[in-house]
What we know:
By secondary structure, the chain is α/β, with parallel strands linked by helices. The chain folds into 2 domains: 1-29, no CATH class; 34-190, Rossmann fold. Helix content is 36%, strand content 23%.
Amino acid sequence: xxxxxxxxxxxxxxxxxxxxxxxxxxxxxxxxxxxxxxxxxxxxxxxxxxxxxxxxxxxxxxxxxxxxxxxxxxxxxxxxxxxxxxxxxxxxxxxxxxxxxxxxxxxxxxxxxxxxxxxxxxxxxxxxxxxxxxxxxxxxxxxxxxxxxxxxxxxxxxxxxxxxxxxxxxxxxxxxxxxxxxxxxxxxxxxxxxxxxxxxxxxxx
Length: 205
């Protein structure tokens, strides 16, 4: 509490901005970490949340771009159900229960442990994964539906697209599934980059 008071006295403009962000449902830490001031100035009208998990970032994007169409993709049933629950009542948010890939069909999703479902991947997990996050490799698989991005999203030519991709090593197959024409027209944000091979020999997760 004392730190908050001191911060307000020393940085009144920042304190006022943070207060307004909280009123809008945006965490100030997210505002700084994701360079949200820069994003908000771009006025994107189409957001692709690839690997949406439980919808935390989907809702953040909705607050940032309330008039944008948002398409969220999440293959894990438990996470997808939570995503749908949290975004229900928002007509401009569409959710697909699938993993994006380079083909329409099914594939085995390598599941993260109970506390690490967000690390699940279409790519096999390496020893580096378990070393970084003990318990993150459940060594179990779940058959999920896979779809090509270009079979679900069609551009009309006037979109300003923002793509958030958190697919745990599956970036290449996502782009090979038609993502190149979307990624080429927008801005891409990968949530995390690691210097340790985590999934199927790839260094990006």
